[in-house]
Amino acid sequence: MDTKVSPDQVIDAQQVGRSVPRMEGAAKVTGRAEYIHNLRLPGVLHGKVFRSRIAHGRILSIDTSAARAVAGVHSVVTGEDIRRIIPEPYYGPAFHDQPILALDKVRYVGEPVAAVLAADPHVAEYAAGLITAEYEELPAVFNEVEAATSSVYVHDELKPAITFPDLKHLKGKRNTNVALDYKLRRGDVAAAFASAAHVFEHEFHTQHIMHTPFEPFVALAEPLDDSVTIHTSSQMPAYVRLEIARLLGWPENKVRARTAYLGGGFGAKVYVKIEPLVVALALLARRPVKMSLTMEEQFYVIGKHATTFRIKSAITADGRIAARKCEVFWNGGAYADIGPRVSQKSGFTSTGPYQIECAEIDSAEIYTNLPPAGAFRGFGIPQLVWAYESHTDIIARALKIDPLEFRRRNILHDGQEHPTGTVMRDAEFDEVLVRIAARMGWDQPFDRGTGTKRRGRGIAIGVKASIAPTTSFALVNVSADGSAVLFCNTIDMGQASNTANAQLVAEVLGIAAERVKVTQADTDVTPFDMGTLGSRSMFHMGHAVRLAAEHARTQLEALCAEGGITYSGEQSVAQGFRKKFGMQAGNIFGVGHYTSRYQAADPVTGMSKEVTPFWMIGGAGIELEVDTETGHVTILRMVNVVDAGRAINPRVVETQISGAALMQMGQTMTEEMIFTSAGELTNPSLAYYKIPGIHDIPASIENEAVEAETRNGPFGSKGVGESGTFGVSPAIANAIDDAVGVRLYSLPLTPESIYRAICAARGEPLED
Questions:
Q1: What is the pTM of this model?
Q2: CATH 3.30.1330.30: does it fit domain 25-33+470-595?
């Protein structure tokens, strides 16, 4: 990558809309890029965890004697030890429900119960395996629908955190597994169903899934005289600082959280995960402590919600959706994490991207005795789109209306109200559908296959509301030679955010993007940002970066004018500094901050006029082949089209789309966390938990971001990291139905499930 741009070079090309190579590319391919996993400190101890082997039970005793006797073990720590320094050792962004180490009870198989510290990680791991615990085993609940009404309670009472004020009313609520029950009511739903020409009702299911970042969770806590530094692979260093300071009762300036490049996150590394435990161990030991989880251990930290989605639609005689009822149960596992936000912020889109005057939504986050579930690429939207777009296809086929035509007949348009009450702005639903159809040649005949190999096509489209309200700050430091440094807390975990943010700075200042350096997040240096999640960064941080750069430019223009110089980029800046100070010296600092507009939902109707600052839209078209003798599916062609507003870096946008789509393809076809009836995970390794490999990639992948502009976005842009996930699962299921005439209602779409459906359809069901 050529970064040698002359300071006096005149930049003619715009920086926004330019496919700048990833600025971290050379460091990554040469192995010089910093990752926390590679960090070493003198005197560091390694922590390994002993985990619960039952799903639900009271802790009667923990025997650590054998572990303490192992040569090389520094110490063994239980939850009671942690209470010596943190009297209330519970954390969580929505509820303070998760203990740093289990206290009194365990609530899922794999929950951390005790930790071993040793200078050698292998010694610590061996010793942790010698710990035993005795429990009074309690009944457990695993299914989200059953848990919603069960008398077996995962928690004695609800303990809302202060992060989200709208959860305050739940404080002290007892005898429930429902962590949050969001409701939306719009129009006279009963009347719409009573007068409907057709009524369709279905139930869909999605499975438990693990994020599978190839860099597992890792954190290193360094205790100092009266402070602590946390080196962590986190998507939210500012929140890590906030939560650790709260736990310790310290001011925030005594807690420093810094990170580096992330080897994947996908939502797994938001808020806090292993950081509270690592900090507690370091403070107890008074030495640096590092924890690097194995791939197997990641399965027990956080995953993607399994769901049950019941959907019912009232259809008019002319094929329009008059009303829709949606009931979504989210399996949140033993601890809430950010699940209540998933159930609300995604739940209100469960009617889909359609003109629906009457809607009734119930979306509930449910505690169960399984590993916690939380944010995952798409933030719950892929589970919803899987259901409502499969349901939509079933309706279209039953009414003998072309699936594309049925969608276009009902799709939302600019200026119309979403069922939440928010008016759609800059949301190119119809254009996305048009482009998918054009690329697929939807109105043209295609090869249907012969014999045992049958071919089909399917389409689907989905919508996501950006999380709101959130706040971002940025700072731009312009040096006396005209180059710049951007300080912000957006985390680059593969999405090339550093490159895009550098382009924004460069666009405003009139310099080349290669002349902008972006710092790694460090809460002692970089200003506050809510976090890198939910595709919010390009919009929210993009605005903050733009404003900071504009603030800097205003000062630079004044500096140049003072010296009688016309501002024209780097060369003029250098002249202005020399004129003022007599040498190349000085700095200009620009500061910007942005908070999105938001109106809280009405407590009765669940509606809001400003539920989101922008909408994300993505659709997919699939052509595939089904082997009717085995149920095996070969995806021949995948078309992904999104509305990303104006692309800041078109090449990066394209790779974001395909990366998201392929990730969702794996979750559609093969990925599933499989539990026994006792809540034990049977496949916590990549040998048995199957993600897509190179041979699973479709032969043809086409990606497109439609020409669009988000008028309230920075330079017309908005987030795109999740949009490519939305339509993949239902488009595949719709194509399978088109090929062999069978409809599947549960993910994943394995060869066995497809073959069983084929056999059942021809009256020859297989025995279990």
A1: 0.96
A2: no
